[in-house]
Design brief:
Number of helices: 10
Strand order of the largest sheet: 2-1-3-6-5-7
Radius of gyration: 30 Å
Mean pLDDT: 89
Structural class: alpha/beta
Helix content: 25-40%
Largest sheet: 6 strands, mixed
Distance between the termini: 117 Å
Length: about 325
């Protein structure tokens, strides 16, 4: 009996077994495209982290600006606190801002002066208003005298801010070797401050929400700086970190003092009459009233609160 032999294998494979050059080229193109897409996405992520860009959706009705004033119930009368809150609330209502009144007693700053509460209070405000853009920190010993002024057009609009910035200015006058930069752009500024004749004036300033703001506040509140017992407490600590941390100086804009921080009394070493309050100024600050036992912040504020109340009906 004979059996049929299996057919010989052809030395020519069927067409479907061939690897066409076009499919190989196509595969390489897809691989290259995937690599380019991954690199692009990584670069976009890196840029967003470095420059603070965010794609988050801001809920409708979110206030752009939050006015933050720390209240010390242990050392302020109820009437004084009531006037402070009414002043800020009236101003915020006119412009669609929010107000935040944290209490000094809410924070633990050890044996450091109570004025250090300003910093964790601002950190608290950032958490309480996570979608607001700017936080206006105003000393309780200050009165908003011209509520018609809105902060955006007054200071914060990028072109306006660029026109106001004091460039190549010693951070701590008169002769600090560390000076403000001359090339900064308004949209890149995250901290707006004033200075007087002695140094930086932290009684009235603005900070922009973001990773940088959290870094700045955490650095400022570092236990190491609080342990130094600076003569002006958090004020000298602020001057220290601004001068020796380039990442802070590169985000700082110094502006003319009376735009945010006119003084109620004449102090020659801090600018004298040039920085004293004049009619039409935005804010008057009772500088030093809480550090001098011969002065009373509450008593000194009475005339200014009365002036403010008198003008309420005249301000549209």
């Amino acid at each position: 009996m004979q059996f049929a032999l299996p057919p010989r294998k052809s030395s020519h494979p069927p067409p479907y077994a061939r690897h066409s050059r076009s499919s190989s080229l196509r595969r390489k193109q897809l691989q290259f495209g995937a690599i380019v897409a991954c690199v692009t996405l990584f670069l976009l992520f890196l840029v967003s982290r470095l420059f603070g860009f965010s794609s988050e959706r801001i809920p409708p009705g979110t206030p752009e600006i939050v006015v933050v004033t720390v209240i010390d119930e242990e050392n302020m009368s109820k009437e004084y606190i009531s006037n402070i809150k009414a002043n800020r609330k009236d101003y915020a209502t006119r412009h669609g801002y929010a107000v935040f009144f944290p209490s000094t007693s809410n924070y633990n700053f050890g044996t450091s002066p109570r004025s250090w509460a300003l910093i964790p209070a601002l950190r608290h405000a950032l958490a309480a208003y996570p979608h607001s853009t700017f936080f206006f920190s105003l000393s309780p010993h200050a009165v908003i005298m011209n509520p018609s002024i809105d902060l955006h057009s007054h200071v914060l609009a990028p072109k306006r801010l660029e026109s106001l910035m004091l460039k190549e200015k010693p951070v701590v006058p008169p002769d600090s070797v560390i000076k403000t930069f001359s090339h900064l752009r308004g949209e890149r500024i995250d901290l707006v401050l004033t200075q007087d004749g002695e140094g930086l004036a932290q009684g009235s300033f603005i900070v922009r929400r973001g990773e940088w703001a959290r870094f700045f506040l955490d650095t400022w509140f570092d236990p190491l700086y609080r342990s130094y017992n600076f003569q002006k407490a958090e004020g000298h600590a602020l001057e220290h970190i601004v001068q020796w941390h380039p990442t802070i100086l590169t985000k700082l804009a110094l502006i003319p003092q009376r735009l945010l921080n006119s003084y109620s009394v004449e102090v020659a070493s801090r600018g004298g009459r040039d920085v004293m309050y004049r009619d039409g100024d935005f804010v008057v600050r009772l500088v030093g009233c809480d550090l001098d036992t011969n002065r009373s912040c509450e008593k000194e504020s009475e005339d200014f609160f009365n002036q403010w109340k008198h003008t309420l009906g005249k301000v549209v």
